[in-house]
Amino acid sequence: MTTENLPEARPLSELAGASSGSEWLARYQDSLMGVFGTPQRVLVRGQGCYVWDADGKQYLDLLGGIAVNALGHAHPFVTSVISSQLSTLGHVSNFFTSPTQVALAEKLLQVTGAPSGSKVFFANSGTEANEAAFKLARRNRGTPEKPRTKVVALEGAFHGRTMGALALTAKKAYREPFEPLPGGVVHVAFGDLDALAAAVDETTQAVFLEPIQGEAGVIPLPAGYLAAARKITHDAGALLIVDEVQTGMGRTGTWLAIEGSGIVPDAVSLAKGLGGGFPIGALVTFGADNSARLAAGQHGTTFGGNPVATAAALATVHAIETQGVLANVRSVGERLRSALAALPEVAQVRGRGLLIGIDLVGPGGDGTAVAAGANLAGAVVNAALEAGFIINAPGPRTIRLAPPLILTAEQADTFIAALPGLVATAAGQLAAAEKETT
Ligand SMILES: *Cc1c(COP(=O)(O)O)cnc(C)c1O
């Protein structure tokens, strides 16, 4: 084939077509499966911590694609590394390797503090990283006389949506339509060490934990829980697998949320922020024994460890390391948490670094101004969009922030200043809607 026969390059707008926001949404309804509900906006462009919709409106992105856009949007270093890798070598099968794949594995072993003999498996998403972790757990088989068959996870856990990860996820609404799920998984009460100790025995293959449950509303494990869970699993011969898909790669101000807990886990899953917006997941197995549990041929993936995805992650990690990003996460996170906690509209602030959960009271601190069952947080999300902020509501009274790790103090301050007004607007809209229906 000669280049003369190649189709003429066309601008993206010609390939995709151009429509207004409402036209795109109508086309979405007719062409996309309805699993996500109606999209809130049609986004067309991003720069740093801001995105723009199809109608030209600007938003401060305080959700970062759900803890994904670690360096914001269109980061010049990350985009240049991705495009140069793509124009050099875009994909090879896993019959081959590539320099970025090896370099990223080495880098992840370094930043996670994994001991010698540790290894990395690359996947494409959080749920796939956890599928690999689940298969790793299944390889902790015990003996023919005393087989291990049980896996323990926590109430409130979110580990993903594919069948194995879904079996680890606690929420009934996500699980029940798809039963039977892979068996042997039990869920124990969150934060309850007695319940964990009672559930873990010589038949247990592994315990799965999130250091901070993100999807449940940014709920951290109680102090001392990780260390005690490590002891319980170690004593029973069970693996301790930590899901850092949301909390990892600098989100909490350290490379891993478990840093400083003193524990050495058996494996850690990563995804969301790892590729700075490019899809990639990883499972890091700690120590030589765990790294040998999955033998040649026992697991695999076509796209996992792809040169472009690993280049994106390598660039993201490099930028975080060299640009003072972790210090920024700690200082801007602390500034947000302390200012938000001081607002009368706020009952409680949870989380660490730039993963923040905010429980709302009501306008001016008046909890009686909003009906008990009303979705105040959902109404605040809508009011925030109108005011140019992207946030998220994991519960009816809870807001989650997971902004780019490069969020500035000034950008954070604009949201702190706006929140009381957003709560008042939301409460007003809920009251008006209530009146209309009664
Ligand atoms: C988002 C998330 C997952 C699933 O990741 P996907 O990339 O959506 O499959 C798993 N575990 C945790 C803790 C998460 O936050």
| Discrete helix count | 15
Query: Span between N and C termini?
Result: 70 Å
Protein structure class: alpha/beta
Count the beta strands.
Answer: 17
In which range does the helix fraction lie?
A: 25-40%
Task: Walk me through this protein's architecture.
The chain has 438 residues and is an alpha/beta fold. Helix content is 37%, strand content 17%. It contains 15 helices and 17 strands. The chain has helices at 12-16, 21-31, 64-67, 76-86, 99-111, 126-138, 163-168, 172-175, 193-199, 225-236, 287-291, 307-322, 325-341, 376-386, 409-437, and strands at residues 43-47, 50-53, 58-61, 119-123, 150-154, 185-188, 204-209, 212-213, 219-220, 239-243, 267-270, 281-285, 346-352, 355-360, 389-390, 392-395, 398-401. It has a seven-stranded mixed sheet with strand order 4-12-11-10-7-5-6, sandwiched between helices. A four-stranded mixed sheet has the order 1-2-3-15. Strand 8 and strand 9 (219-220) form a beta hairpin. The longest helix is centred in the last third of the chain and has 29 residues, at 409-437. It is globular. The termini are far apart. Residues 125-127, 130, 158-160, 210, 214-215, 243, 245-246, 271-272 line the site of pyridoxal-5'-phosphate (PLP).
